Amino acid sequence: MTRPYPPEPFRIKVTESIRLIPPEAREAALKEAGYNLFSMKAEDIFIDLLTDSGTGAMSQEQWAALMRGDESYAGARSYHRLKAAVEDIFGFKYFVPTHQGRAAENILAACLVKPGDLIPSNMHFDTTDANIRARKGRPANLVIDEAHDPANPHPFKGNMDIAKLKAFIAKYGREKIPFGMITVTNNAGGGQPVSMENLKQVADVYHEAGIPFFIDAARYAENCYFIKERELGYKHVSIKDIAREMFSLADGMTMSAKKDAIVNIGGLLCLNDESLFQDIRNELILREGFPTYGGLAGRDLDAMAVGLYEGLDEAYLAYRLGQTAYLAARINDAGIPTIQPAGGHGVYVNAGAILPHLPNYEFPAQALAVELYREGGIRGVEIGSVMFAYLDPETNAWNYPKLELLRLAIPRRTYTQSHMDCVADSLAEIKTRADKIRGYKFTYAPELLRHFTARFEPLNM
Ligand code: F0G
After folding, report:
1. Does any ligand 1 atom lie closer than 6 A to the CB of residue 185?
2. What would the pLDDT profile of 58-84 be if each residue is shown by its tens digit?
3. Structural domains of the chain, ranges and CATH numbers in brackets
């Protein structure tokens, strides 16, 4: 018998209680939060799929490692243990720890981005995009066209469009492009992987033009597992060897360790260029801390050193990606479309397809997010017009994103198969009354990053 879902390769030694509060209490909590799930109390949430970032469960080995944390200001043993793991897995000459991924991006951008510079990638994550813009640079997303078609089952939908990348470099010139990037897996595009073949081509194009190549490695281990499963020639290669090959193509990387290093806080910035490393160290001292702790406690460095290896474990990755695929399949079985194929860290529900009676300006993905909380106490995150619609200053018209999505991001080693069933069953239940679900309007919205603090009110039918 083939199981639809690999059994969890761990047993549970410590538990954290969660509870589904009664429907009236959920309704009151929604109202108080202005129908914004970011404004809710975590204790009022039953299954929290807001993000997979820093929300995973650490192992007994990681908790044990915390006790070994060396809190020396400089040259701590914890730093040297992390350094050994980072060198072994990623193979770059230099690295600094940072308190999380966006801190690594900030330091890289501070050292390299000048006003008017352009930074290409497949798709930048929001914080990378914002860190480039904060230095008056311009991020550019050059992912393959298939990434924009939610039904297209392309196995490497995170790939960069090589023709677009070449044309981009030819148009703007090397002088305007201080470095190029790629995000593995592509979070902004549905957690979709990049193939090794594409990474090689991207590296060649950057290097032929003399442009340093940095990888956003937040979910690199999940990407490596997809390569092993889907790309010819990798079936018998270990995940660590796939990772070594991946990073040997690049000149550096930024990483949020809150994802594939399975820690609650931490980040990395790695590179090979010595003079850039000196600039980075100076910037780090100013913003994060001394280069051997980079804004973290010694114990955090130790937990990361252990978590980096656990994130590469094949039984863990089979379960991890199997869990995501299982949730997507169960949701699809209920007749609800999600971005195909299932991504690594989450399921992206096509809210526009479930609530076709709601136009973009009535925020269908927000309406579905609210309804999923109402139904099952489950929190996802809207990735649609609340997050991305903007008023075009030239035309004075609203510009809406192509898709209205609800992301259900799965924390690592945290929820079980029955929690996933609960999520799928709640969505199936919502589908039966979808035509009665109302849209929303803002009662408060800041100009920038409005999804975090906006307040809403339901519209009348
Ligand atoms: N890069 C990617 C691809 C990410 O997904 C994230 C964070 C970051 C960088 C920034 O890292 O949060 O440690 O500063 N993504 C989280 C999410 C927040 O929910 O997808 P950070």
Report:
1. no
2. 999 999 999 999 999 999 999 999 999
3. 23-52+314-458 (3.90.1150.10), 60-310 (3.40.640.10)
